[in-house]
Specification:
With 352 residues, the chain is of the alpha/beta class. 46% of the residues lie in helices and 16% in strands. The protein folds into 2 domains: 21-100, Arc Repressor Mutant, subunit A; 158-305 and 315-351, Vaccinia Virus protein VP39 (Rossmann fold, 3-Layer(aba) Sandwich), CATH 3.40.50. Strands 8-7-6-9-10-12-11 form a 7-stranded mixed sheet, with helices on both faces. Pfam families: Dimerisation, Methyltransf_2.
Length: 352
Amino acid sequence: MKTTDTGPTRAAQDTTAATPQAFHEVLLAYCGSKTLMSAVEIDLFSTLADGKRMTEDELRKQLSLHPRLSRHFLDTLVALDLLVKDGEHYRNSAVSEQYLDRAKPTYVGGFAETTNDTFYPAWGKLTKALRTGQAQAPIPPDDSDHLFRVNVHTEPDRVRRFMTAMDSHSTAMAGELARLLPWDRFTSFADIGGCRGNLSAHLVLAQPHLKGICLDRAQSAQFFDEHMTALGTTGRVTFQAGDFFADDLPRVDVLVFGHVLHDWSPENRVLLMEHAHRALNPGGMIVVYDRMIDGSPLDLHRLFYSLTFMLASGGGSEYSVEQCSRWLLDAGFHTPRSHRVLADHSVVVAQR
């Protein structure tokens, strides 16, 4: 009987192709993360800003680095495309020059600073969290002196750096919301948990007929005033100090909850949606945006964010569009609709 050789079976092919390389890449991913965080911590990229070129010896002396590690540390940043090496001199890559120089308004290194201090240590306790279900980051101070776990009186510049990093997201989101939503039907809105008012400012710049309110904790007010002056929106957006659980929300046409619900438990999310329904003007609109999980196990970026919020807060996590729509319906809203924006975000809109 004649037989045909069809080559190796699927199982054999998989076994032949399988190597531990992918395993090692995942296992060592933390090395790149920590290298970046340490580079931000020592302010390496600001030292090399504006086209400056320095040797390893010069950087070691400038930044008080030990010679045992310094060269391999710098070369690792070259391999990560965060530095460029010309002979014996190092300089910033294009992305580092634009986003990791503290003097530039495009700086996003504030996220690296917070990750280094809070999220990275919490991830080191992931196994404990898996066993207990409990957050592993320190509980944020609940007082009038802190924002983002940083004292606003003793480290105001660090608070500003983190806000600048958040602004990089909220500026892009404001552009999406300005384009996406029917603002011609409304005249007023409030951004709940709006930090220093960046989203609100860019919305009124894009939709000049709008009046905005930024609601956040009282210690954000000084940073809000500075930012409105810088953007030229003083008087067009006002600041309202408050606790969005305990205090009345502004009575406006549109309420925006951006990067807020993921900090809280499902029970508290429902309370916030009910609170919003009571505050909105009749015919008003609620807008919720987050990195909502689409249900795919391959949605790795948002799953990482979700686990981070689980590790950093007692009830936080990302959530699905379906869950968000259900909370809105349960709170009395109707006709929820969702939109995918900015590659990794979802916006859910519903009517009062």
